[in-house]
Amino acid sequence: LYTLATLLLTWPLVRHFTTHVPGDGIDDPSLAWNLWWIKERLVDQVKLDIFHVDWMFYPIAINLGFYTLTPLNGLLSVPLQGAFSLILANNLMLLSSFVLGGFGAYLLVLQEIKHQTSNIKNAHLAALFAGFVYAFASSKLFYASLGQFNIASSQWIPFCVLYLLRLTRATSWRAAFRNALFAGIFLTFQA
């Protein structure tokens, strides 16, 4: 359902899925470049320093430390870029942020409903609705339409909160460690 809603709410992207990225032409090219740069630097050039560009604005090197580089999205897009194209990888990353965000919010709300009450008659429906509200918030759709994929990438937050709440309820040190580890991973992903 989240995938179908994503395709409908980002229309007409699906019609131009392999040729265009969403945006107004201001931020979207540089954010697509981010994905390309991570693959170029790590895979093609085989250099680990992703924050140093020595051939752009030559002979003055550029430090990307304060640039809106999106390393996680870039890393996740490397296999997609290898199999498809940069544009397709960019669009898949954007659409997956809606689907993952909705699914994470669904899991979080479902867990909380089950924890708070024994009457879970409509728990899945309520959790599904909460996932829709989170994944397709007007602010996320707005930033995605402007091509600001770095701001629209909020899909890891529900997973982080899910594991933080599980951490507070852990009954063993192993469960606490596992939940803390996952909360930390998802927080790092979001950062």
Number of extended strands: 2
Largest sheet: 2 strands, antiparallel
List low-pLDDT spans: none
Strand content: under 5%
Number of continuous helical runs:
9
Q: How would you state the average pLDDT, rounded?
A: 89
Helicity range: 55-70%
- Order of strands, main sheet, comes to 1-2
| Gyration radius from CA atoms, angstroms | 19 Å
What separation lies between the terminal Cα atoms?
Answer: 27 Å
Helix-strand string: HHEEHHHHHHH
Task: Note the main attributes of this structure.
two-stranded antiparallel ribbon, 65% helix, mainly alpha, 191 residues
Explain the overall architecture:
This protein has 191 residues and is mainly α. It contains nine helices and two strands. The chain has helices spanning 2-9, 28-44, 71-83, 86-116, 123-135, 138-145, 149-152, 157-168, 173-190; strands at 52-53, 62-63. Strands 1-2 form a two-stranded antiparallel sheet.
Q: What is the element layout, followed by pairings?
A:
Blueprint: H1 2-9, H2 28-44, E1 52-53, E2 62-63, H3 71-83, H4 86-116, H5 123-135, H6 138-145, H7 149-152, H8 157-168, H9 173-190
Antiparallel strand pairs: 1-2
Helix pairs in contact: 1-4, 2-3, 3-4, 4-5, 4-8, 8-9
